[in-house]
UniProtKB/TrEMBL annotation:
One of its GO terms (molecular function) is hydrogen dehydrogenase (NADP+) activity. It comes from the Bacteria. The gene is hndB. CDD domains: TRX_Fd_family (cd02980). Its EC number is 1.12.1.3. Keywords: Oxidoreductase. This is NADP-reducing hydrogenase subunit HndB. InterPro entries: Thioredoxin-like_sf.
């Protein structure tokens, strides 16, 4: 029979595993704007590109959605927050730009100046 301490240790291990699997400890965070207007502008497709990249092995990235940024003319938006760096926000991101952001910015550290907002 498991002791109370064994139960606590098991619960802790499960919690730590969940934190790691969700990417909460990642050094890179990607936020895709998913307010109603951003969805209408194509953010679901942009989010799908990031999810697909993660399913294919993109690591050390926490992917999440965010609400309205109040910049409808620049949607869809993607914000990248990296440990120790100033956050970067890209505007008018489509599927092609999302793939380039993954390759150039997330994988190679290059900020794509012409897409910044």
């Amino acid at each position: 029979m498991a002791t109370p301490l064994d139960i606590v240790k098991k619960k802790r291990a499960q919690a730590v595993s969940k934190i790691i699997s969700k990417g909460y400890l990642s050094t890179k965070r990607v936020y895709v704007g998913m307010a109603t207007c951003e969805i209408a502008a194509g953010s679901k497709e942009v989010m799908a590109v990031f999810k697909d990249a993660m399913a294919k092995g993109l690591t050390d990235v926490y992917l999440s959605q965010k609400g309205c940024a109040g910049r409808c003319n620049l949607e869809p938006t993607v914000e990248i927050v990296e440990e120790g760096k100033i956050p970067v926000k890209y505007g008018k991101v489509d599927e092609k730009k999302a793939r380039e952001i993954i390759e150039r910015h997330i994988k190679n550290g290059e900020i794509i100046e012409e897409w910044l907002i």
